[in-house]
Amino acid sequence: MPILPDALDEARRIITAAAERGLTVRLLGGIAIRLHSPHATHRSLTRAYPDLDFATPDKRSYLIESLLAELGYEPNKPFNLFNGDHRLLFFDEANNRQVDVFVGGFHMSHRIPFTNRIAVEPLTLPLAELLLTKLQIAQMNEKDVRDLCALILDHPFGDGDNEMVNLPYVAKLCADDWGLWKTATLSIQKVRDFCDAFNLEPEEKDTLLERLNALRQALDDAPKSLQWKARNAIGERVQWYELPEEVKRG
């Protein structure tokens, strides 16, 4: 079967093909949030999804490379050679689409683990991880804010993962990592600041702000690790995030 032009259909094709080969692959990024969040099609929050992002706990990256090659993707050979133990890139020229695969963990501005919770959802990473992979972006852009708004509007915070964001889990990761906590709190404020730019109904804006406040409160109240406290003493005098490598498409 050729690569499908619809991004969501193609994501399902890749996940199914991986499962048939005994590989676990899950979707993340904006298209994963679109799958869970009806508000992603809201007139003010809709956006294009030019690329696909996946996560796999399997460190045998050569198996993922073989799979995607069989499915019609062209590997970025230089990038994959030097980064294949944690990240792989592929390209679909016909649909001008890049596929990014995070191997064994998510690492961009900050590190987000996913291996132990990869089976929570059948197609995507859990909602908590989807939230964190957006909150951890040190240089957030408008599409990331739109994704966060959609995710938060459609999912309450709670103590589990069944169509809710696991707030204790999010708070615990941030309480163990001052840098992640710092970037996440800045991201929460950025989403607040953008609220008026989107044509949301008053009740939607109220829900969004209420949940953002609850999220910030949970991040502040969670008991902090000794490592967090030691890094907090240094504060912003030392950069606390990484700037991911920009890789040319194709």
Strand order of the largest sheet: 1-2-5-4-3
Largest sheet, strands/sense/barrel = 5 strands, mixed
Q: Find the structural class using helix and strand composition.
A: alpha/beta
The total number of structural domains is 1
Contiguous runs where pLDDT drops below 50 for at least 5 residues: none
User: Radius of gyration, Cα only, in angstroms?
Assistant: 18 Å
Count the E strands.
Answer: 9
Helix content: 40-55%
Average of per-residue pLDDT values:
95
Shape: globular
Summarize the structure.
The chain contains 10 helices and 9 strands.
Could you please describe the fold and organization of this structure?
Helices cover 46% and strands 12% of the residues. It has 250 residues and is of the alpha/beta class. It has one domain. It has a five-stranded mixed β-sheet with strand order 1-2-5-4-3. Strands 6-7 form a two-stranded antiparallel ribbon. Strand 4 and strand 5 (97-103) form a beta hairpin. Helix 2 (30-36) packs parallel to helix 6 (142-154), helix 6 (142-154) crosses helix 8 and helix 7 packs across helix 9 (202-221). The model has no long low-confidence stretch (mean pLDDT 95).
Descriptive key words:
about 250 residues, alpha/beta, 5-stranded mixed beta sheet, two-stranded antiparallel sheet, 10 helices, 9 strands, globular
Blueprint (SSEs and pairs):
Blueprint: H1 7-20, E1 26-28, H2 30-36, E2 52-56, H3 61-70, E3 74-75, H4 77-83, E4 87-92, E5 97-103, E6 106-107, E7 111-112, H5 127-135, H6 142-154, E8 157-158, E9 165-166, H7 167-176, H8 178-194, H9 202-221, H10 226-234
Parallel strand pairs: 2-5, 8-9
Antiparallel strand pairs: 1-2, 3-4, 4-5, 6-7
Helix pairs in contact: 2-6, 5-6, 6-8, 7-8, 7-9, 8-9
